[in-house]
Amino acid sequence: MTTKTTWPVARVLRDRDAGLYLSGVVVSGFGTSALWLASGVWAKDLTGSDGLAALCMLALWLPTLAGPLLGTLADRGPRKPLLIGVNVLLGTLLLTLVGVDAPGDLWLLYAVLFVYGAAGVVHDAAESALVATVVGPSLLGDFNGLRMTAAEGMKLLAPLAGAGLYAAYGGASVALLDAATFVLAAGLYAALRVREEKPPPPTGSRRRRTAEGVRHLWAHPVLRPLVLAGGATMLCAGLNGAMVYAVVDGLGHSPAYTGVLYAVQGAGSVAVGLLSGPALRHLGARRFAACGIALLALAVALRVVPSDPVALVCSAAIGAGLPAVLIAALTSVQRETPGALLGRVTATAHTLVYAPNVAGLAAGAALVEPVGHQPVLVALGVALLVTAAALCAPPAGAEAVPHR
Question: Which pTM does this prediction carry?
Answer without folding.
Answer: 0.74
